Amino acid sequence: MSITFKKKVSSTATTRLPSGTRLNSNGTLLLTSTGISSLDTFIGEGLPIGSLTVIYEDKYSNMSDSILRCYLSEGIYNTHDLCVAALRTDPTENLPTKEEYTPTDDSPSDKMKIAWRYENLSAINSSTTTNIHYDLQTTKSIPNGLVEQIKIHKLTWNEYKQSQPAISYRNYLLKSLQQLLTTNYSSQHADKRILRIAIQSLSLSLFDDDDDLHHADELFSFLYHLRILLRTSLATCVITLNEKSKLFETVADIVFECKLSNTIHSDYVGFCQLIKLPKLNTVQPFIPDTWDIGIKLIKHRKNIIFEKYSIPPDLSEDASRDEKNKNFSCSSSSKLDF
Asked: Would you identify the CATH topology of the domain 33-102+126-312?
């Protein structure tokens, strides 16, 4: 006899949720979308409010920037305030617009005889369950009416040099984010507005204190203190990093890496390697069906989707290619079909 416990969520609770958020299937986490629905399915239905996400950049592609732009556009369409820290071009310029497309069924008509297990893949493999996407090559701009409803805070390098150049860039970011989160986006604040923080291309070279600390230690300290601030606020943060380190992965809630595909004539422009998934408010964290994810650009390279490109082997004892060979034995009564 097994006893299971499930948290009962009130049906009226969803009416009090902030705009652009929802509860997960267990009712224990408040989630918001990354802007890419196919990516949400691999990380546990979306980004938990109060979480820190780290994306390792690929220097040969701009896939991490595309994810960051979709993340910011999703915030504008859901009336979430934005906070952007960038050293290169402003990520808020020429953001992709939300558009609709008609899902197509590209599945083969014939029954698979060799890769038969791929027939039972879930719908997220093709990512055609939704008809909403963000056009990465759009020539349109987001309506001004939507932009005027939110606040956009920018922490650029020029503003840092002009404000308080005596302190380090790490302390400048932490001080600015702490003032912003504790003042306007605290979880105890009466106005339940969500803040989306995007930090583009954070590098070790930006942490140039005069003390004897190693730059990696300073960056770890920055991520650690930032996560503490996020835990008590109605905000999410996505950071793209130039350097990889196991140390950074210990303080982040979600970590994945985007790599450019070097396979000739491949259907995928890149691959996504999941490194860490959130383990918040649960004793049994979300585990995807596979950790091997391919990245595609469809509809004339406008829409980015994430899908399975391999499935784990079936190691069960009753695994077989078809039903007629399922009861195969070496007895004399068995008919061998070659």
From this structure: Rossmann fold (3.40.50)
Domain ranges for the chain? 33-102+126-312
By percentage, how much of the chain surpasses pLDDT 70?
A: 71
Q: In this predicted model, what pLDDT tens digit does every residue of 194-222 receive, in sequence order?
A: 999 999 888 776 665 544 456 778 888 89
| Secondary structure (DSSP) of 239-268 | EEESS--HHHHTT-SEEEEEEE---TT-S-
Angle at 28 between CA 23 and CA 31, to 5 degrees: 35
Average pLDDT over residues 232-244: 91
> What is d(CA 107, CA 123) in angstroms, rounded to the nearest whole number?
11
Q: Using CA atoms, how far apart are residues 306 and 317, in angstroms rounded to an integer?
A: 31
Residues 81/85/87/91 CA torsion (nearest 10 deg): -20
Q: Does residue 327 sit in helix, strand or coil?
A: coil
Mean pLDDT of 19-35: 88
Give dist(CA 312, CA 292) in Å, integer: 9
Q: Tell me how far CA of residue 297 lies from CA of 166, 270, 303, in angstroms.
A: 44, 9, 5
Q: What is the pLDDT of residue 244?
A: 86
Dist. CA 140–CA 99, nearest whole Å: 11
Name the pLDDT band for 11 (thresholds 50, 70, 90). very low
Give the separation between CA 236 and CA 12, rounded to whole angstroms: 24
User: In whole angstroms, what is the distance from residue 179 CA to residue 36 CA?
Assistant: 30
In whole angstroms, what is the distance from residue 41 CA to residue 127 CA? Answer: 10
Residues in the chain: 338
Q: Is the Cβ–Cβ distance between 175 and 163 less than 8 Å?
A: no
Enumerate residues 6+ apart whose C-beta is below 8 A from 110: none
Q: Which are the contacts of 49, defined by CB distance < 8 A and separation ≥ 6?
A: 21, 29, 30, 31, 32, 194, 234, 235, 236
**How much is the pTM?**
0.79
Q: Which residues does 232 contact at the CB level (< 8 Å), separation at least 6?
A: 50, 181, 186, 187
- Give me the helices (H) in the chain, please: 37-43, 63-77, 144-147, 157-163, 169-184, 215-231, 246-249
